[in-house]
Amino acid sequence: MESNCEERLVRIAAGSVLLEGNLSLPGGARGIVLFAHGSGSSRFSPRNRYVAQLLNQEKLATLLVDLLSPEEEAVDLQTAQLRFNIGLLAERLVGVTDWLVRQPDTGPLRIGYFGASTGAAAALVAAAERPKIVRAVVSRGGRPDLAGPALARVEAPTLLIVGGNDLLVIELNRAALAQLRCEKRLVIVPGATHLFEEPGALDEVARLAREWFERHLAWEETPATRSRHERGGETS
Questions:
Q1: What is the pTM of this model?
Q2: Which CATH code for domain 5-235?
Q3: In degrees, to the nearest 5, what angle opens at C-alpha 206 toward C-alphas 120 and 153?
């Protein structure tokens, strides 16, 4: 399926640093998903780019952005400390979110977050800071437990996706799920490991994410449609 989607480089001021991102805006976009990377990844992550392209095909715009400056990335490669600075990453994510709201072409779109690894924790903290703006969160192999007390303040419907063989992360996600007070769901993908490298695993992640974002970003949900969806459950 052709996405008829242009991708362009954007630069976003976040405090004293300038962040770079790749914005893809398909014609007739029905929402926009902001990707939050973690654990040494970047906006060029092949896994996240693959998911983003599939979302673009469904007329969901995407912004893959580096939450650290090139200088900070160089430091983090040596120390691996900034990738675990959830407060800093969340602050940057809030700044990028506010930038999206101010832009003429993205301002009217509902915003969702797709977080991976420590980026999932940053996404949840940022969602708690912008409850009226962020309308959905998806975590892929994430560490939502690192969001700490912010979990109880998240209002955006949240989907946690974990590989079935990623045993420690499954337990960390279950603990985070119990603290969330919003609409929530944990899906365990059978046979998948942390990076979802197994055949078909990443396609399943993309399918689950697409359905979650389409439901919460692309149209207004009514009480009748909400009642048909599971709240707070776990599936595999």
A1: 0.90
A2: 3.40.50.1820
A3: 30
